[in-house]
Design a protein that fits this description.
Layout: E1 5-10, H1 12-16, E2 29-30, E3 33-34, H2 35-38, H3 41-46, H4 48-64, H5 69-76, E4 82-87, H6 93-97, E5 102-104, E6 107-114, E7 121-123, E8 140-144, H7 154-162, E9 166-170, H8 182-185, E10 192-195, E11 208-211, H9 215-222
Parallel strand pairs: 1-4, 1-9, 4-5, 9-10, 10-11
Antiparallel strand pairs: 2-3, 6-7, 6-8
Helix pairs in contact: 5-9
């Protein structure tokens, strides 16, 4: 018997409860940095050292963070459901929390690639430095999808959402596109849930249940609505 398929779109709010800061909580500043200085191709061209320093710090932050009850709670759903996590987050807390099927829309902090080749990525646990080059001879950069860059995994994510039995949105402002558009691709008949301590402004969605709680509490509450 096939398990019912839960698709989860997670954002920064789920990781915030593990101590990782989000830029939208602080007027466009991410850990004190202007997002457009550290998360755009223009910022990279202007000051690659600043960008590398920023993501080296983020890599250390993520390594020190631990999965919270929302991460482990979603992983626990795999006992009764087929669960796919589509995350906007660059951390690995879903994986460390036990989830076995995670799609990263915006890249991963523990991976890097050359500036010339977007398809070949390498593991990185330490720092990336100016002068660190890929086999093709070009500078290595974080494997992160910056603002103004295409989101390569978006087409796959749309297909996943369209084949869900439940669609759950957790800890995202639904302001970062194209990821926020995934809710629009969910079929009208599909049961949809939004879990956030402050629900984003949304309307015109059918079969939508809002659970206005932090992620750690909301994932527990979600279980009451799900039928294997």
């Amino acid at each position: 018997m096939n398990k019912r398929h839960i698709v989860v779109l997670s954002g920064a709010g789920i990781s915030a409860e593990s101590g990782l800061k989000t830029f939208r909580d602080s007027d466009g500043l991410w850990n004190g940095y202007d997002v457009y200085e550290v998360a755009t191709p223009g910022g990279w061209r202007k000051n690659p050292q600043l960008v590398l320093d920023f993501y080296n710090d983020r890599r250390r932050d993520v390594a020190a963070a631990k999965p919270n009850a929302a991460h482990t709670g979603l992983a626990g759903l795999e006992k009764d459901f087929d669960v796919t996590i589509i995350t906007q987050n660059i951390d690995d807390l879903h994986e460390r929390g036990g989830s076995s099927n995670v799609v990263h829309l915006h890249g991963e902090i523990f991976k890097m690639r050359s500036v010339a080749d977007i398809d070949t990525v390498y593991e990185i646990r330490g720092d990336i430095k100016i002068g660190d080059v890929a086999p093709d001879g070009t500078q290595l950069r974080p494997h992160i999808v910056w603002f103004e860059e295409e989101v390569p995994m978006m087409e796959k994510a749309v297909q996943i959402v369209q084949n869900a039995d439940y669609f759950v949105v957790i800890g995202t402002s639904l302001q970062v596109y194209p990821a926020a558009a995934l809710l629009q691709y969910a079929p009208r008949y599909l049961p949809k849930f939004i879990i956030d301590k402050k629900s984003p402004a949304i309307n015109n969605y059918t079969n939508l249940t809002v659970i206005e709680m932090p992620a750690t509490e909301g994932v527990k509450e979600l279980r009451k609505y799900l039928e294997p």
